[in-house]
Amino acid sequence: MFNASRRLTLGLGLVLAALSINLLPTAQAAAPQVKSSAPGFYRVMLGDFEVTTLSDGTVALPVDQLLLHTTPAHIKQALADNFETTPLETSVNAFLVNTGAKLVLIDTGTSHYFGPTLGRLQESLKAAGYQPEQVDEIYITHMHMDHVGGLMAGEARAFPNAIVRADQHDADYWLSAVQMDKAPAEHKDAFKNAMTVLEPYVKAGKFQPFNGDTELVPGIKAHASYGHTPGHTTYVIESKGQRLVLWGDLMHVAALQFPDPGVSVKFDSDIPAALAQRKVAFAEAAAHGEMVGAAHLPFPGLGHLRKQGQGYVFVPLNYSVVR
Fold first, then answer.
1. What's the sign of the alpha-carbon dihedral 112, 115, 121, 127?
2. What is the tens place of the pLDDT at every residue in 36-55?
3. pTM of the model
4. Domain at 41-316: CATH code
5. CA dihedral in degrees (217, 285, 55, 188; nearest 10)?
6. 234: part of which helix (H) or strand (E)?
């Protein structure tokens, strides 16, 4: 009986051991790398207004070949101090403002004009809970293609119900065949592309230019900031005493231009005028403590400026979940 009992116990032990081995986790093949991010949007409240930054993606810019009033050594060191290098991965941001009465989009991204790492604004807009048909008005900072390219989706207007507004000076320049004929050969495509994406809105009676400082809807004002282009415009958003100034392309490379606003970029059509506008905008932002946003600040491109020595420090907005 003892031997039978012992054999039974031994047998049960072997069975349980076999079961435990089978229940052990088995080795899995390595998970594939995804190598992409989710659609980019970030939302904040400004008084009663909802402001959503929309990412159009990023593009690598050879900033060492684009910046002026500095030296290659200084560019390299400034980028290294910020753990960056050139070509610099540069954000393209647009801003959606819901005033409660109007849904206003400021700039539209690139569409297909600058390659596969950009052109994601529509995806970001939808991920943020909106549809392009809901956009009432579009305000353009200037008519470079990373700001107006997204006006079209193939052969159709990407925002079929929207009125598009931009400064008359930019319209007179970029939509002019005379100006295009005067431009160097390497710049002519910029005119052709601007005409291509704006013409359907013009034909539909949905392009309404303004001239200089103008209140467009209650709480949103256009402010003439000419220099980067002939009609470059910044937009001032204000609700319940809270203020956000959207700079457009007053600046491009934070690591260089905040410490030294005198550093300029070859993209500026009037370099001295753009430099003067940048210096004024930086000084006002630091003096008043207002929130600022820019197209090419790292996404979500919102924060504040603090004076430091002869330059400034950019303080990105603290992350918050809107409730």
1. positive
2. 888 899 999 999 999 999 99
3. 0.90
4. 3.60.15.10
5. 80
6. strand 233-239
